[in-house]
Amino acid sequence: MDLIKSVTSIIDTVKKLKEINDKIKDADLKNVIADLNLELSEIKVKLSEMINENNELKEKIRIIEDTKNQKEELILKNDSYYTKNGDGPFCTGCFDKSGKKIRLIKNPIIAAQDFGKYKCPVCGNFFR
To answer: Which of 69, 91, 73, 67 shows the shortest CA–CA distance to 81?
Structure first.
């Protein structure tokens, strides 16, 4: 962010130079200032894009680290995940794909006989 402030400050300085140059009426100086202003604007846009990309990458790293930490706390039992303190069951497919602990819901007795005792409300998988 400090870099963007610096570039913005430089752009403001270039604008002041342009105002001074307008009074002088030197065509070559005007062209150089205009080119400089354009290049600085492009740098500002690219810096902004890099900052956004950096923030997105940081968020992805945070999600991966959180998923890794949660994975270490989960136990696979009866084809479902449970926490070490017995909370669960959670969908293995949803957690393995997106790192989200999706609690499984109980199926009615009739459906449980044909499909499984639990169903994931997100991906629709059944578990016995």
So the answer is: 91
> Are 101 and 56 contained in the same domain?
no
**9-50, pLDDT tens digit by residue?**
888 888 887 777 777 777 777 788 788 888 888 888 999 999
Tell me which long-range contacts 109-116 makes (C-beta under 8 A, separation of at least 24).
none
Instruction: Quote the domain boundaries for residue 12.
Output: 2-69
Q: How many CA atoms lie within 13 A of 11 on its CB side?
A: 15
The whole-model pTM stands at: 0.47
Counting DSSP H helices and E strands in the chain, the numbers are 4, 5
Is 107 found in the same domain as 57?
Answer: no
Domain identity same for 42 and 7 = yes
